[in-house]
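Q: I'm writing a short methods note and want an example of a predicted protein-small molecule complex. Could you take the sequence and the SMILES for flavin mononucleotide and return the bound structure as C-alpha cells? Please keep the output block clean; save any remarks for afterwards.
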Amino acid sequence: MDFRELASTRCSIRSYDTSRTVSDDTLLQVLDAGRMAPSAKNLQPWKFHVVRSPGMLEKLHACYPGEWLRSAPCILAVSGKRSAAWVRRRDGYNSLETDLAIVMDHLVLAATAQGLGTCWVAAFDPAMLRDALRLEPEDEIFAFTPIGYAAQGAVTVPKNRKPLDEMIVFL
Ligand SMILES: Cc1cc2nc3c(=O)[nH]c(=O)nc-3n(C[C@H](O)[C@H](O)[C@H](O)COP(=O)(O)O)c2cc1C
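A: Understood, no commentary inside the block.
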C-alpha cells in the first residue's frame, strides 16, 4: 500500500471484532513505528499506554460515553510531560500537543498498514482517564485510540473532505 492509499484507507472504526485480539508482534510493530515519530528537538516526550486487561479496559470505557468502544480488544493512549517537551524561547510555545499528535498519527497509520482499525478519541472525561491510567500529576493526555480488527460490516463513513483547492495557497 503506498502512502496515498494508506491515508485514504484509514478511517475511524467504531465497531470491532470481539473474537480477534491483536498479537504482541503486530502491536509491537505498531508501537515501534510510533517510536520513529519526529518530535521537537528529538525530545520524544511521550509514553505509550497499552490497555488490554479486562479490568483496565472497563476503567477506560467508563471514561468515554460511546458504547461502541466496548468492542475494542485494546486501547492505546499516549501521554507526555510538558516539562519534557521543547519550548520556543521567543514566545514560550511548548511542543507537547504537536509531538503527541504526530506520534499518535504514526501509531494510527502503522495500525492501518497492519490491517487494524483505530479511531482517535478525545471526548473522554480527562479526570477519570487520569485516575484510570494512574497518571503522574504532570502527565497530559490528549487522545487515545482503540485498536483492533474491524467487525464485519463495520460502518465506514465515506471520506468527506473539503476540496484541495480550498486548502492550498500557492505563494
Ligand atoms: C483530535 C481528534 C479527536 C477525535 N475525537 C473523537 C471522539 O472522541 N469520538 C469519536 O467517535 N471520534 C473522534 N474523532 C474522529 C473524528 O470524528 C474523525 O476522524 C473524522 O470525523 C473524520 O473521519 P475519518 O476518521 O473516518 O476519516 C476524533 C478525531 C480527532 C483527530
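A: Remarks, as requested: The pocket of flavin mononucleotide is lined by residues 11-12, 14, 66, 119-123, 143, 157, 159 (CB under 6 Å). The longest helix spans residues 96-113.
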